[in-house]
Amino acid sequence: MERILVMLSNDELKDGMNFILKLSDTTGTAAHWIARFDGDIAARWYGIYYRSDWQALRDQGREVFRNRATEAEAERVLKSGRCVMIHTAQVKAEEIDPLVKVAMPLQPNWESDGGSLAPTVSPPAIAVVANALTT
Which of 43, 96, 125, 130 qualifies as a FRET site for 31, CA 20 to 30 Å off? Predict the structure, then answer.
């Protein structure tokens, strides 16, 4: 285990501790992640928080803070008991979780005419498949 001033109890290290990461994106909108760490990982991330090691957050945050949470979920965890809240303006949300590009539609002007990304199947084709499955 990394030797730092660990302010987590032995029980918290053994049982796990919730960590909330709150960062703003480039537009200023808050993004939240929630993760539960135990043992060496909890001690390591507490150390990153304690030392304000924002470069380590940039380099390794993506590996452990995988799924964004809503503000309500983060607030619930924050109020449910002891947790570690990592919040800094020095790191942007996109540095941890880059924005995913939205798929482009296959058909031009699909938004305007009610089209979709899914291929369309005519009712007679569905009936042929249904008959084949039942016989």
Answer: 43
